[in-house]
From TrEMBL:
Gene: iolE
Top-rank taxon, per record: Bacteria
Name assigned to this protein: Myo-inosose-2 dehydratase
Domain called Xylose isomerase-like TIM barrel: residue spans: 36-289
Coiled-coil spans in chain: none
Listed PANTHER family: HYDROXYPYRUVATE ISOMERASE (PTHR12110), INOSOSE DEHYDRATASE (PTHR12110:SF41)
UniProt keyword terms in alphabetical order: Cobalt, Lyase, Manganese
GO terms under biological process: inositol catabolic process
Amino acid sequence: MMIMSNISVGIAPIGWTNDDLPELGGETQYQQILSEVALSGFAGTEIGNKYPKDPKVLKHQLDLRGIRIASAWFGTYFTTQPFEQVEKDFIAFRDYMNSLGADHINLCEQGNTIQGMMDVPVFDGKPEFTAEEWDKVTKGLDRLGEIAADTGTIVSYHHHMGTGVQTTAEIDRLMENTDPDKVKLLVDIGHLQFSGEDPVDIVTRYKDRIGHFHLKDIRPDVLQRVKDEKLSFLQAVLAGVFTIPGDGQGDFKTILQPVVESDYDGWFLVEAEQDPAKADPFEYALRARKYIKETLGV
């Protein structure tokens, strides 16, 4: 097998402490997270709520461990806020990321999202964009892509459960109505499986436009419970719907081998939010890194 890609493998802090549920892992210090990321054999991480806000402090701690920031989440509000406010917030965040040496930002439209609502069923309560909202989102994303490119930064769109861009049809519509040179796609394998989409189809269709990967798996028995009991997204996370690659139903070899053999130049970022009291973050990080190495050779 000839590997042509230039893939870096990282892991998000969300297994240690959760931004949407900060009580999970609330006692964990950021230094422990960064140390265990490095000890597990990962090259980098994403921004988490425990990390120092001062980029000099965070960069120093990263450098001590030989790891770096791969990317970070930025929620847009094109459907509920004036574009000027979104633009201002994005520029500040872009500059913060650049000060850390990071050149990738993950965007997700958060207007009317239900992902953070504990009592709204994730499937039944999902928002749907109007034609006017779709226009605001796609034009706004293109503009942020332009602003990002001014400093050599790439933006990728993160389809997400409980938002207006979750299904294959919605991903297709977003991709069709944004500029490929300005907006890439973040493929989150766990969210695709959760929603009932086909990760192989999405990766095959958009292979040349993918800017970032989130790798997590689904526990099918928990997913069925989410559907049967009409659980919210947060309730699903607490129930353990997500897990690391290789610990659920996903066939990561089939999904990602074509990417490994392509000229993809980016990250495979493990992002498997679980309750750290039930799933020891360090143990699961070690298991995830071993699985990716053995299965994909990266």
